Amino acid sequence: MKITDHIKQANKTLFSFEILPPLKGENIEHINKNIARLLEYKPSFIDVTYHQQEVEYRDLADGRVEKKTVRKRPGTVGISAAVQYKTGVNVVPHLICGGFSKEDTENALIDLHFLGIDNLLVVRGDAAASQRYFKPEADGHPHALGLVKQVNALNKGIYLDNELENSHPTDFCIGVAGYPEKHSEAPNWQLDLKNLKDKVDAGADYIVTQMFYDNKKYFNFVDECRAIGINVPIIPGLKPIATKKQLMTLPSIFHIDLPTELVNEVLKCKSRDEVRQLGVEWSIMQSKELIAAGAPVLHFYTMGNSDNIEQIAKAVF
Ligand SMILES: Cc1cc2nc3c(=O)[nH]c(=O)nc-3n(C[C@H](O)[C@H](O)[C@H](O)COP(=O)(O)OP(=O)(O)OC[C@H]3O[C@@H](n4cnc5c(N)ncnc54)[C@H](O)[C@@H]3O)c2cc1C
User: Fold this and answer.
1) What is the pLDDT of residues 67-118, one digit of tens each?
2) Mind listing the pLDDT tens digit for each residue in 132-156?
3) Nearest residue by C-alpha to atom 36 in ligand 1
4) Complete DSSP assignment for 243-266
5) Strand duo 54-59 + 65-70: pairing
6) Distance from the alpha carbon of residue 216 to the mean position of ligand 1, in angstroms
7) Contact at 8 Å (CB) between 125 and 79?
8) Does 177 sit in the ligand 1 pocket, CB within 6 Å?
9) For atom 23 of ligand 1, which residue has the closest CA?
10) Ligand 1 centroid vs 255 CA: distance in angstroms?
11) What is the dihedral angle through the alpha carbons of 22, 23, 25, 26, rounded to the nearest 10 degrees?
């Protein structure tokens, strides 16, 4: 079932969450356990992130430096299929531009289609660790917009090889990312919103937001989107704070602001457990307000450990 159909059929705010594939070498059991504890709260869908390969430079014993390409978290497609068939919950694999030619993308879409997966979240991906700015593959997409257009074309049966006969259309429901506090690379807020509208006009069916800790940012974002004619569902993304270090890392990685009150409360905490509990309470407060305002879904970033998400889900769903 498509994400947009889940939303249309619901008469309440739905629950969903995102998982990361395990690091290479780890097994899938940790993920299975994390998912199992959240199934009780009836998630409507589960996202599985995609991780681009990275280039690493390793010192060799003879003094030379070896350049190596590594994919630290492979397995998005396999995990997506395994989770969907094991749990019966719709999965939403993420698909990125980084590291993919258009041909690679088409082949990945064909795999997902044959696996019975018809929901996607389409994003550009960040610059690889070794690069300052995002660089697409020679024949890849520089922006998520191109990826949305390619998926939408495939939904109409238009493949890259336009000489294919009797080509079969796919039927993907397409999600894209939105930024209540602006994407870091956008020259300004209006252009970022316009770029988001272009993705929706090109066929995106819904938006999932970057995490935020002040609901006013989300409410304002929704108002601004509606004002320029973006009418698809806008799903808020939430990530409970779990460590003091995140006071620095979240703003620097995700380019978001943390409210003063939250920062002050985190600083007062005397242990890791206290911070984790505070993060849960802050998220519960955000969730209740978002539900009261009629948010279509609350989408949680689990980052691998779901005990805190379980506490939130227990309190609000
Ligand atoms: C919900 C969510 C899920 C995510 N999942 C993943 C994941 O699984 N894997 C991963 O690697 N990353 C993921 N990310 C991170 C994401 O890849 C980064 O935030 C990335 O920097 C931007 O992706 P995007 O799809 O928003 O890019 P885009 O929509 O391409 O936008 C990127 C920047 O380019 C600008 N822009 C867009 N179109 C144009 C244009 N035509 N001309 C000029 N400028 C333009 C935008 O304003 C923006 O500043 C996720 C982010 C979110 C919010």
Assistant:
1) 888 888 999 999 999 999 999 999 999 999 999 999 999 999 999 999 999 9
2) 899 999 999 999 999 999 999 999 9
3) 195
4) -TTHHHHHHHHH-----HHHHHHH
5) antiparallel
6) 22
7) no
8) yes
9) 124
10) 13
11) -40
Contacts of 128 (CB under 8 A, 6+ apart): 52, 53, 54, 55, 98, 135
Six-digit token pair at 80?
Answer: 């997506």
Alpha carbon distance 228, 234 (integer Å): 14
d(CA 301, CA 175): 16
Query: Rounded distance, CA 316 to CA 314, Å?
Result: 6
Which are the contacts of 145, defined by CB distance < 8 A and separation ≥ 6?
195, 198, 199, 202
Give the C-alpha separation, 169 to 180, whole Å.
34
125 lines ligand 1 (CB under 6 A): yes
Residue that has been written with the tokens 């989300």 in this structure: 218
d(CA 262, CA 285): 12
Sign of the alpha-carbon dihedral angle for 15, 275, 207, 146? negative
pTM of the model: 0.97
How long is the chain?
317
Write 277-280 long-range contacts (CB < 8 A, 24+): 278/241, 279/240, 279/241, 279/242, 279/308, 280/240, 280/308, 280/311, 280/312
Token pair 């939904």 is found at 155
